[in-house]
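Last lecture ended with a question: if I hand you only a sequence, what can you say about the shape of the protein? Today we answer it with a concrete record. The protein is Secreted protein. Below, first the input exactly as provided, then the predicted structure, then a couple of comments.
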Amino acid sequence: MQVAQTLGDRDLTFILRRVTGLPGPLQVDVLTHRGTAAGTLRLGTVPTGVSADRAEGSSVGTTTSSVSVKLGSTPGSHSAALDIERAGPWELVVDDGSRTARIPFMVPGRATSPPELAVFGGFVTAGVLMLVTLLVAVRARRGVWVLLPAGGVVAALAVAVTAALLSTSLPLPPEPGGQVDATNDNVTDPYSVVRPVTNDYSRPPASLELGSYRAKAAERGTLRLSVNDGSTGLPADDLLVHDGALMHLLVIGPTGELWHLHPIRTAPGTYEVQLRLPAAGHYAVSAEFARRGGGIQQVRSATGLTVADGSARGGPPTLSAELAPRGPGTRTIDGVPVRLSAPSPRAGAATTLIARVGDTPTLQPWLGMVGHMIVVGPLDRADATSPTGMGQAAQGAPVWAHAHSMGGDMSSDSTHDMGGASAHDMAAMRQGGHPGGDEGGMGSMSGLMPLNGDSPADETVAAYGPDASFVYTFSRPGYYRVWIQAERDSAILTVPYLLRVAPAAGVAK
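The predicted structure:
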């Protein structure tokens, strides 16, 4: 499991490796990016959940294993091992000395399904009765007694074969931690606690509430967020790791600068992230997350943030020339040349955007993807090019979108990269088809897709690109602000662009 966390000023990725035996070690890798400050993290494991067994529930909430991890000033991977005693829901507690993040994870138990028990029991019973049949046939004077154990053999074999044939069609029980709330009991044996059913586990949407943010421009402040259930108002503590994070927070400032952050979970339904917002003005905020049994949700804050000017002289906010939005073409971000190709986007038609980041296939998967694209619009030209009002314009923009480039071709020739795929195309691929009828489409996905149960590539693999392609359909004409994000040399590059989308063919301007 890969989880990105914005812990103070550090952007970290935690990789939790599979626990292969119980009790056994949990291997944790901490990946740092360029600019990460050196320091020490304290990692700990805490069992959570409830159980009908009082003795098993006695350790809930208690740190059972802990270890220190020293982070260097250069990007890299830092490993640690913690002890896991039993199956069930757990939390990885990460403490940097001033704040604590709590990352929920699941250690599944090994359970035998009822059909498997019937198959094993039927064959074992048939074997025993076969020996009894032989014994009766040798020692009994009347052959009729042989029919009794022989009939039992036939019945046991019938049960075993029937269970084996029906096992593929019987529904699985709901997955603890994925479809239903996890407890120690249903994780250890989901069949004995929750019967196989076909109910819909969807949950209502959640609301996003922002706490007060008192920091002024250029000051460090903490933004607290509450995620509440839409039907009860209670804290929604059922967020799942989605695209490598529990929550993806997008903040757009008055100058058009974008922050893509991953708040830490500090308590049930409560998250926080540290910000140093550089300019006074309005900031638009949205969050993307997935609820257990409720699917992926993108929730935009109804209020956003308004940051006061902290300088004595005041003045309008400014944005460096490097980060100023431009149309498609070549530009340089953090010393890396980036070229965006977006041929004549038109409303209602799928558009392929290709960003070439650098000149070598050295992109790293960030949040499990080669590239990310954030889209906000449509806006009129004045708002889209405003140097001070982009945050307010984004607050009311009809469209906020987050698209992915999922191509994973680890070769120098990236012209055949699959790139971003629509939801329809991805669904077709999951069912064994090919998007757009391209027979070779799946081949370029092989670099990121795990094979034979292996884990997908993480940020330690720098072998993708340099092209990151996206497929997106702009629903309306107008001006759109677009940010392309990719990781290279352990640094996250954010490249802003301004796109004009023409009206649909045959529609008057």
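Comments.
1. The longest helix spans residues 114-139.
2. The mean pLDDT is 86.
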